């Protein structure tokens, strides 16, 4: 969550009247930045991760694991630098914590961004672990900050899933399953939730295919949906077709925005380089979703998908019926000043729709781009090239969702609020981040598809690997361009159950820029994409290793980096299973599991306890993490001065 303005948010009916104003001034704000920073160059390679946690409360007597709603109190403690541990640290190492959408979520980032030197890459895991230990030290005895992507029983109706227990409902989400009190208490978040629902005209509809086990009824018609409730007009939606048979139905923003992820932001030397890295990263996004898949259970049911992406996409889908194509456009009000009512193909949380680098092959930009034409024309008139103008005009087809009355009229030369309002609610697989006004921060690119991993070893490995790839792209001038329509197809494949073993992904053959262009695209397994298959498809890992060879690192440093890379390779070829697969197996082998797809409170408790033990290095799972994980974890904890168990 980028922007957290303070003030009085406007009701949707009022906000919508100001949408054109926000868009107009938002683009003027972008133009201010562009004029100031378009020629900015020579910024150093800097990068940083964002790690999201959910705070779980374990009750070892009742055998329950529930979500703590103490976000506010926890953040007040974690954000104040009063602890001796904190004060003793240099600024670069001071853990930084931020709020997130769920009132059980926190996010951490490094005290200062890292460089891409081997020294810095090899600090990342310890830095992540320091943040986790710091958070743990400030939580209550049975609270644990867990980097789990989706809470398996979020929205289950047979037993509480929050601590304290709450009743579902509330005027923001009007959910049958989630209480509004589960949402971050900052007024921005309930307002965002309500305005998405109001703009859309119904509650959001999320249907994830259920995993049909041997005792799961066919068709599966969820008996736990409280159809009888009659609090809000929307309560009847589930019975009237919103809840699909054979699916796990969810009806609120919290189901998606309440998931945790791992994001990495890197700075480029200048705007053009940032656009190049953005493009080269885009075809990689589905591969990293598949390899980090960690979200196979929703509302207490095992799903037939392994990852969160479609859930979160649907959870903030604010498009009207006409925009989604389920009602005639003639009934649709005009949303944009110069654009007729139009269909919108995707949710505001979805995959990238256009390449940005001026050298991108036009035929690979094969997605029809809905645009706010007044925005595009203004940018073109200001001398901005078509690709960037169209990218922004595409982001600006969306309405601003939360407008604070105190911040409607701002100085466009000193504020980015209106630009950020639209930019930060376009949640795509990649984000192109312009420099903040007047600061020391340059053009950046954010890599957003990954699911958060259980341990900091894994989170560090994936972050480091992605950062190395961003260097490799520039160093070897790689050419990963492929049609964006196929990247989208890959996004769907990436979420399939056990994608590593069951799916092939479209990918570019011949990665060198001057390579022959016959048969540009092949279909590959993740193992082939990471390890390479033949001369035409060299593989990401060999490419990273070639880059490291050229750096001629000290042997110990190289060995440490190779450990992370080898781990990524073992996930890619299935030697080590994904978190999603581990969770499925755990449920299936639990003595109380009835092979009916139901994840009971007890199974949930045992699973989260076990995950916690694995993270702490108390339980070795050699087909999930490398065999030396536990020992390494303990050594790192000793380095940090964490008392042994
Ligand atoms: P958002 O939530 O908007 O994506 P955050 O502020 O939560 O952004 O995270 C941004 C990440 O970018 C952090 O890890 C931070 O360390 C990192 N970062 C900060 N400054 C720079 C910079 N100049 N270049 C690259 N990354 C940076
Ligand atoms: Mg976040
Ligand atoms: Mg963040
Ligand atoms: Mg981010």
Please tell me about this protein's structure.
- Its EC number is 6.3.2.2.
- Residues 329-343 have a biased composition (Basic and acidic residues).
- Pathway: Sulfur metabolism; glutathione biosynthesis; glutathione from L-cysteine and L-glutamate: step 1/2.
- Residues 320-343 are annotated as: Disordered.
- The protein is an alpha+beta fold.
- Among the domains are: 46-257, Creatine Kinase, Chain A, domain 2 (2-Layer Sandwich); 468-640, Helicase, Ruva Protein, domain 3 (Orthogonal Bundle).
- The chain contains 25 helices and 17 strands.
- Strands 1, 2, 3, 4, 5, 6, 9, 14 and 15 form a nine-stranded mixed beta sheet that branches. Strands 7-8 form a two-stranded antiparallel ribbon. Strands 10-11 form a two-stranded antiparallel ribbon.
- α6 runs antiparallel to α17 (456-475), α11 (285-291) packs parallel to α18 (484-494) and α17 crosses α21.
- The longest helix is centred in the C-terminal third of the chain and has 20 residues, at 456-475.
- The two termini are 35 Å apart.
- It binds adenosine-5'-diphosphate (ADP) and magnesium ion (MG) (3 copies).
- One magnesium ion is lined by residues 1, 50, 52, 100, 107.
